[in-house]
Fold this sequence. Notes:
This protein is α/β, with parallel strands linked by helices.
Amino acid sequence: MPQYRIVTPAIAAAGGYALEMEALAGLDAVIEEAPTDAAGFLAAAKDADAVYAKGIPITKEIIDGLTKCRVISLGSVGVDSVDVKAATARGIPVTNIPDTFIEEVADHAMTLLLAGFRRLVEQDKLVRDGRWKEGRPALYKYPRLMGQTLGFISFGRVARAVARRAAPFGLRMMAYDPFIDETLISEHGVLPATLTEVLTQSDFISMHAPARPEVHHMLKEQHFRQMKPTAIFVNTGRGPTVDESALIKALQEGWIAHAALDVLETEPPSHNNPILRMENVTLTAHVASASARFDEARKRRVGHELALVLSGKWPMSCVNPAVLQNTALQRWQPVGLGRGPNS
């Protein structure tokens, strides 16, 4: 019997778990699949040493039923599928992979910005419909990109990478993020601003807020009403941070000009979602992070985080470092490969 059991929902995993197991090879650990219903998963994971979360919500009910769990690891940036508060209360670190596909998402955000600005989908359709001569006049009403203002809502790692890409285009940039020091924002050539300033002054608004309860529907009707009627809204963050009904109304009534979206409030969208039929919307299917290295990199990172914790070290990317303050966690060694709770 292996020394460590890692339980994960039985969601199709291309290639199995060979990549995750690379870092776990010397620990006498095994990854076991469990049913995807809450009761079945809990029954299988009850005495597991770790949970590899994917595909199903890891709720408070599940977390409270775990008797030996030392870590819950996610192979994503977002942690909204895990009740982090419940895990913290139980002294269980929750890990994610916030820096594995920053470059891909930043590339995609810039792609959506440019595609929306130059109305790429519309131009493509004109050519395919035999309306070649209409293409150039359709763009005469839009200004040149240089000198326009790009505003960021949240200025984490992806937004900073977008800023690096946007700078050579001659865009003026500003960002709202109350959790980041203004000097850090300024160091990236971006002007620190209030949310109102970003909304009212930006020609492009790039949304990067994470999926957390406190930012659910962060952008509502009153926020879209503050934007320029010529503004383009880009979202490569999380769909639920935006009140989608308000966004739809803004697009229908001309409060803003265009939306370029990789994420929606409900995914995949219902066939009757009005966004699917809007000509002033550019859509991709939550694919911003996808690349040839994506799956391998994230799986190896999950295995690395699991190995660190099961070895008694602190994980690299812990989203709830407050668990270290729990006196029951004296086993932790925030040294060596682990960067500590304040990194």
